[in-house]
Amino acid sequence: MIYILQKARPSEESDSMEESKADASELLPKENPGPVPLSVRRAKQLISLFTMVQNPNMTHLKLGEVVVLPPLWIRCDGSDPEHTYWLGAEPLKAGNKIVGINLYMVTCDGPTAYKTCFANLEELKMQHKILHHSSVVTTKGFAQYELLRAAAIEDTIVEPESSIYVDITWNTVDKILETPPLISAATLNIALEPGDPRSPVYQLYRELQFLLALAEGLKTGVTKWPEPLEPESAVELVQEFVADLKKKLDGSWVSGNRNGMEKIRCDTEAVDSSIKSIFSERGDLDFAEQLWCKMKCVSSYQELIACFTLILESLEHGEIQPWIHHGSSSLLSKLIQQSYHGKMEAVSLTGITPIQMLLEIGLDKMKKDYVNFFIGQELATLTSLDYFISTSVDLQEQVHRVQKLHHMLEIMVSCTVLLQFKHESLFPWTQICIKYYRENPLDEKHVFQLPVSSALVKKFYQDSHPEVWKVDISSGHGLKEVKTMWQVSTNPPVEHKMSNNTGLLSDSTVNASIEEKTYFITVVKCSQVHFR
Fold this sequence. Notes:
The chain is of the alpha+beta class. The protein is 39% helix and 18% strand. The chain has 18 helices and eleven strands. An eleven-stranded mixed sheet has the order 1-2-3-4-11-10-9-5-6-7-8. The protein is elongated, with a radius of gyration of 32 Å.
């Protein structure tokens, strides 16, 4: 826990007289101006008071027993010559005893042109040695690169809500802004929100959205039906499907006249050619799964009833004898099994029953699609996926878990197609995603941190400018360790500076070319006060 101190914002409430005089412009929503900092002078006074309170030698203040307080950080307005935006104080403890205070000062300049006004590493090291009276210092580097933009190509996944960064750390820095060596430790940070129409698995995402609409309708009683997109209605597609099955049963069906059967394909038919090799269509769709592919374009409750009425009448009269996968627990599968014996229980297609029937066959089909991908690519075993395809939970929870499978699929497809990673990387990453989603609810904004060899991502960043680059210079050990941090970043490192530079950022950063890229320069200095 830490304390953050900032100035209280004035109340935005107005009295009735002021409200009556407000014009239309004053009634418009106002942007949040962000946190309000203190003056540097006032912040230094408060840090001094904090240090005094934590000093056990200040007995004349009669404060009683000193209680160790959490670290204190104070927002500053950057009005001093150094442009200080944070001041911090952190008690140093030896056991339960306070032995000193670490004092921090965070300064920030910029934005400034790339590679101009940057510090010299040897000068930074010398300044640190002089300030802390140390003869030996160590350095550690950190760099963050954006891979999504670096790897972006036409018609691939480039979604504003998504991001793929790589964080790289290494020991012994030789110069400012040096490219990380190949022996560096790297971590891929990927946040990928499904739904980009350019995604290779967007058709599967649309299928999932219809499944979610059915689940919501089952829960609330109100179903949001999709707009008709196919030239033929769901009823017409099902009629053709049943007619072909009847012809096949009586022997009049020939392979050259397949009509609707040609259209019975897994929804990966619209998938980009670059992904077909790893997300190929399934060739083992049973009757219920093929029916889902026809009925997923159903656009009304009445159309849903008409489709299932046609199917149930054909089954009851023995006009079709479809096959289904073993182990399916849907109501339609049970009715099909009963039809093999010439006797089916009566099902009333009223209320939520037809919606539940369609949801069940959709769930079965999509579960098999995801399992087919992960097992087919040798990224997971059936045992590790059992949690996601279990039927021992209610339908709403089953849908929730299928959403998790889709999120994992989008991540792995992006890493394969966009970043071209191989199985040796994808397999352990899949296990990380599986572990996370077995223990946590769906979070499409979650940033997955996946370890990766820096050599595998070097091609993406070797000719790129970093989003963040910093060096830590340290000396001392244990409680006497002190650090100096120098950093450049494309975004302001402190939010209350960002609120003061909105216009400047849009001109110098967003619209800038790589050569004109601008950076904020941040320096964090640490000093110690020891209580004797």
